[in-house]
Structures are given as structure tokens and as C-alpha cells.
Amino acid sequence: MAREGIHVERPYERLNKDQVELIHQASMEILQDPGLISFNEEAVNIFHSHGAEVESLGGDHRSWHVKLPEQLMTSALKSVPKTVTLGARNPDNSLVMNGDQPKVYLITGSETNIWLDVEFPEYVHKSDSSKKIRVPEFKPRRGMVEDLCQSARVCEHLEMVDGFIRNVNIQDRDITPENKDVNKFFASLNNNTKHFMSGLTSLDQLDNVVRMAELIAGGKKQLADNPIISFITCLVKSPLQFVDDTTSTFIEICRRGLPVAVSSSPQAGTTAPIKEAGIMAQINAEVLAGIALGQLVKPGVPLLYGSVPVRARMDTLSDSYGAVETSQYNIDCVQMARFYGIPNYSTSGVCDSKIPGQQSSIERLFSDIVVAMSGPQYLHCAFGLLECNSVFSLLQAVLDDAHFKMIKHFLKQPRVDQTEIESVLKQIRSVVDTPQKLYISHIRPVLRSGEISGLYPFEGSGETDQVFELAFDRMEELLAKPVQHIDEETTARIFAEVPGILPRLNVYERGS
Amino acid sequence: MSKDIIAALKENVIQGRKTKDDVGIDDSLADKPGVVELTQQALDDKVAPQEIITEGLTAGMEVVGEKFSNKEYFIPDMLASAEAVGAAMDILKPALESAKVETKGKFAIATVKGDIHDIGKNIVAILLKGAGYEVHDLGIDVPEDTVVDFVKNEKPQYLGLSALLTTTMTEMGVVIKALDESKVRGNVKVLIGGAAVSDEFAREIGADAYCADAFAAVKVLDSYQQAKS
Ligand code: B12
What we know:
The structure holds two protein chains of two kinds. Helices cover 40% and strands 18% of the residues of chain A. By secondary structure, chain A is an alpha/beta fold. Among the domains of chain A are: 6-16 and 78-124 and 142-410, Alpha-Beta Barrel (TIM Barrel), CATH 3.20.20; 420-449, no CATH class. Chain A has a nine-stranded mixed sheet with strand order 1-7-23-22-19-17-14-13-12. Chain A has a five-stranded mixed sheet with strand order 3-4-2-16-15. In chain A, strands 11-8-25-24 form a four-stranded mixed sheet. In chain A, a hairpin with an 8-residue loop joins strand 5 (83-86) and strand 6 (95-98). Chain A is globular, with a radius of gyration of 25 Å. Chain B is α/β, with parallel strands linked by helices. Chain B has helices at 2-15, 35-44, 49-69, 75-98, 119-130, 144-154, 170-181, 199-205, 214-228, and strands at 106-112, 134-142, 158-162, 189-193, 209-211. Chain B is globular, with a radius of gyration of 18 Å. The chains are: A alpha/beta, B alpha/beta. Chains A and B meet through helix 14 of A and helix 4 and helix 5 of B. Cobalamin binds at residues 109, 114-121, 123-124, 160-162, 164-167, 191-196, 211, 213-214, 217 of chain B.
């Protein structure tokens, strides 16, 4: 059983057919001229053995110029699976994605450094002590592994979250580059039964992480059938460069046959052209090159077309996810991925704002609505993320969940068919015939069916805005809810076979 | 036997099923008789009208009120129950009259001259009827003469006026003055409501009460009942 997702019958598209074709052609040309620069030798050899023109470049770092002929690309892309299944600890939480079908799954992410605590101090009016208000006070601090556990727990209970990408960078004193991967995987998997995706900090840890997943899934074959974990690799550094270490990681994950999102994040204005046609032609070339490499390593390995295009801020030249163009680029990418029939990993909801508030709500809702309407299959929609993905707030995640419920409702298909028309005609005739001429009694049959949307869940009583207070109560409620941890026996095996997991994460040995 | 009918009546009021064709909150009573059929059956079985009202209808409405306060019920549920009770009261009216049972009283309601808004007025009418009042709806755009004539001839104890426009709310004062001049103001309690009006305005024009919504109307009228007893 897979999660339901949001079916978008008629996805919103910006590009017409000719424009899609033009971008595709431009990408193919880019891959031949100027081609890619690869800092990873193995990728160069793989491409070379399949007919790419390769030329070694001088300089401090070893690098190669790789020209990918269109024919190589076309044949490599033939083996990309159109349907990708991402499993889950609870198989009912699996995600089944088809590249041709605009069904949206909503996913958390990314790896934030800062965790935002929130408190609600009460302020009393100076001259009238009967007047009091409670205002949220946000306190940033470094994210810890316990925060990741909490986030995973809350996301387990947030109805609209379909999958979990680790959203807290764990920076405890005892976390090292060597044990970071096993700890972030264990903390997440142990507190959340949805699909788990993460980047890998160290390639050395890949097999430990895979072993952990095998133990949880019940064995090698079980993991292949129900891939409870997947990876995201940003092997591309825009413009058009393959990074050495991430490319190695990517190749190794592909060899093991586990699902990977191949992502590129060019910034229009700095690392990509500021023009829509330009950033589109480039990002499409970058992602396709990564996907082609994966298919050459292991034909049929499940990959996602990962697009994180963004526009530069003109005041600082840092990312501006709040810019409306960022949403335009993302929507274009969804369309390009659908053109190839490859499931798309897209981005929305990332905001420039530093704290939950009006700016964050406006920025994220804007992109959440429009990008969801375009029908990406795997939407990293930044639950709880602030300040361009560097800050995580559980309070914001709770708000986002509520807003996505509204978006899901909005994207429901209209019900207009012959039976419906007949039934409403009957209703209209009978109501117009009554003295009061009110349809109220006809509300009841649909009142509890989920057909009509609910009130805004954080509506305050009286004249004050209580959104944050009410969302905070909800957050506390969710934090107190238990989650289904990995069972005791499996936990013991994981701790015995996978080195480096912090003993304090073992829920069965905490008390003793 | 009569106990079963009364219990079924109460349950149907809670579910807001006026007739056997109505859906309730759930399907549990599907195709079974609703409030109208049960009330008739109770009368045929010679159950006292008083008992039908207190043990069946009012008892059911009390539960509905609780569910509404607990946010389990919405306004459409409340209105469905009120309409069902209203229909039952119509059936019981002749029996109540012949048994000389004192009812809660007559309530006339109108949207004042120049104003055609009637959604709120209709809701007030449905709910008050469901609360056991005999409701006379005089309609919309009603001139003061019509109101005064009705008060003189039909002798309602209560009069409700609705206005939603700042330009028509003054009509309410005109009606009250006309009642005064016709020497019937003392016979009737005047309640006013609608988006344009307020407590302050009610005092200004000499109305007896302002009601922010239909529930307030039930409360105010019921408080007059208690004052009576
Ligand atoms: C729906 C509506 C209409 C509908 C009316 C349909 C109908 N069948 O009634 C239509 C489209 C026809 C309409 C027309 C007009 N409307 Co209009 N309308 C509204 C609206 C949006 C909602 C009113 C409503 O039904 N509310 C829902 C019900 C359930 O609430 P309610 O009426 O307040 O009733 C509750 C309580 O007030 C109370 N209550 C009400 N009456 C009574 C009476 C008693 C005795 C008691 C105890 C309690 C009580 O209990 C009720 C139930 O809880 C209001 C906006 C608003 N804020 O009210 C404007 C509003 C009232 N309309 C307005 C206007 C201007 C007009 C028009 C003049 C527009 C035009 N230029 O043509 C015309 C009026 C024509 C006329 N001569 O009356 C303005 C009035 C501004 C003002 N000057 O005061 C409003 C406030 C909108 C606005 N902000 O501009 N309107």
C-alpha cells in the first residue's frame, strides 16, 4: 500500500510544447559544447567508454573536459525507470511515483544548522496592567541529534508529510565525520516510519548505513523490494561541473541499486544565466548528465530528476527562494522531468524570512501552491525551514502541515457529471419552492464527508491573532505522542553490527 | 410502548431527522420514522402532548445544544434539529390548544422597510420555532403599519425586527414609535438584530433587547419565560 499523495489532474505548466523541445535541444547542445568539466576520474572513464570525447585539463586539481554526444545521452536515458518506489519502515507509507503522472508527495528537508526554540513570554501593558499579550520569542541554537529525533517524531504525526528528509544537521560534540551518517540515519529511522532520504557525509559509511537499512527491512532482498532509505547527491556544481567526492558517492550508491535523487542547484544570475531559458537549458543538461552517468553505472537504477534552481538576491547575491522566479524555474523543471517521464524531486516553500511570521507565510505559501499545482512527484516543500534552509522550526512545520491540507483540498478535482447535475437540479427546484429558500439542510450530507474544507485550524477566539499560540499547543501535543520505534531485537542487532551509533539513542537502554 | 416512541423521538431530534426521508448524522436511523411521523404516532397512541414536548423534543434539543457547544455539531445540524422540532410543534398545536396547555408564546419577526436581507431573520425564525415558540414570519421590506396591525390583531408577546443596512436600521425606531402611538408598545417585547445594529442602538430606540445571533434570541426569550413563572 502506498500513500495517497495529491493527484493533480491538469497540472499548471508555463512552457508550451515547442519551448520544452527547444530547452531539450539546447541542453543536448550544451552537453556537447561546452560539455562538462569532471573532477571525478571514474565518471570520466565511464563516459569515455561509452563514446564521450574526453580531454584532460591542467591546473591544481585534476579535471577533464567531457563532451557528451546526443546519442550517448539518448541511449543512456532509455533505461531510466519511469516508476520509482520508495519504501518505508511502515510499508503503508511507501511512495510510488510515476514520471508521467502528476501525483505529488510532500517531503521534508534540508539539513539545517540552526534549531529555533520558541517560548511565549507574557507582556503587560505599562499603563494598563489588565492588558496582556503573549508574543513568541524565537531562540536560535545549534541543532543536535536529539532535535533530529524530535523533528522525526513530529513529522511522523504530521498528516501531510509523506516522506522524511533529515532536516537537522546534528552538531553534538561527540558527532564526528565518521559517525555522523549512522547517527542521522538511526535517529531518523528510529523515530519515523515514513520513507527516509538523506545525503551521505562520508562514503566510508555507505555500507554501514545500508547494513542498518537491511536489518530494519529484514534482509538484503527485503531492502531491494522495500527501499526504506534513499539518497540525495548534489554531484553537480553549477555551471556544469562534476564534483569529485559526491560523484564517487553517487556511483557507489548506484552500484548498490538504491534510489538516488540527482540534484543540481544553479543560482540564476551567478552560477547560471539570469534568463529563464538559460537557467533551464543548463540545469536540464546538468541533471540529465548525472542521470545518464547513473544509468551507465547500473542500468535501471531508480533515479529522481532533482531540481533546486534558485534566483540570486540582488542585494547580497545569496539565494533568494522567496523570489517568484525561483518558483517559475521549479515549475519549468517539473515539466521537463515529465517530458522525459522521470519522477521529479522539486522544491517549494523555502523562504528568505528568518523567523515564522507574515513574511515566511507569504513566501512559502506562494511557492507551495504554485509548485504543487505543477505536479512534481516528490516535492521537497521545506516543512519548518526558514532563512533559505539554514534554520528549522518545529512550530513552522506544524503551520506548514495545516497549509498543505488547504492546498490538497484546493487541488481536488471538481465533481461535475450527469448524476451530480441531476441531483443539484432537484435540490435547486425543491429549495426555491420553500418559503425560506435556504439550502442549509442540504449541507448536512456532505458536512462530515471531507467534501468541504475545514476552518483555519489556528483561528483565535475574539479579536486577537492566536496562530502561533495555537500552533504551539498543537506542536506540544504532537511531541507528546509516542512513535513506533524499531523493535528491541533489531535495535540490539543494529548496535552490535553497525559501529558508531551513540548509546544514548538506544531507547531500550536509556533507563538502565 | 410510549416510552419507546419518546426515546425514538429524542434520538431523531438529536440526529436532526424531520421525516423518514432525511439523513441524520449517521445512517443508523435510515428508513426509520423521523420526528414528524413519530410525533403523529405518539398523538395517535394518546401520549400527552406535554410529555412529547418535554421528554422527547426538548430533551433532544438539550443534547443538540450541548453538542453544539462542544463543537461536535455545526449550525446546519442545529437548524436541522430545530426544523424537525418546529414541524412537530405544528402537529401538536391543535392538541395543545384543546388541552389548554400554555405555550411559550407568539413571536412575530420581520425585516424592516427598505431592507431585503432575510437569511439571518430566517435562521432566527427556525431556531425559535424549534425552541417551542409560535413563530409568525411577516417577511421582508415590511412597513411599520403592517407590523402595528399584526401586533394589534394577533397579539404576539414578542416582536423581532431585523435590519442589515445602516440606512434601514432607523426604520426599527420608526416601528417602535408607531407601536407607542398605537398604544400597544407595552404589550410586546421588541428584539432587534442584524449586522448594522448594536446594544447601544437598541437602547437608543427603546427596544427591549439586541441579539447578536439566533442563539441570543432564544436565550433572551427564554429569560422572559423564567421571569413569567
Ligand atoms: C448576503 C448579503 C446580501 C444578499 C442578501 C440575500 C438574502 N437572502 O438575505 C444580497 C446580495 C441580496 C444583498 C443585497 C444588498 N446588500 Co447585502 N449583505 C449580505 C451580507 C454579505 C451577509 C448578510 C447575511 O445574510 N449574513 C448571514 C446571517 C446569518 O447573519 P445576519 O444577517 O447578521 O443574522 C444573524 C444576526 O445578525 C442575528 N439577527 C439578524 N437579524 C435579526 C433579527 C432578530 C429579531 C434577532 C433576534 C437577531 C437577528 O441573528 C442572525 C443569525 O445568527 C452582508 C455582510 C454582513 N457583514 O452582514 C451584506 C451587507 C449587509 N449588505 C450591504 C449592502 C450595501 C447591500 C445592498 C444595498 C447592495 C446594493 N448596493 O445593492 C443590497 C441591499 C438591498 C436592500 N434593499 O436590502 C452592506 C450594508 C452596508 C450598510 N450600509 O450598512 C453589507 C454590510 C455588506 C457591506 N459591508 O457592504 N446583500
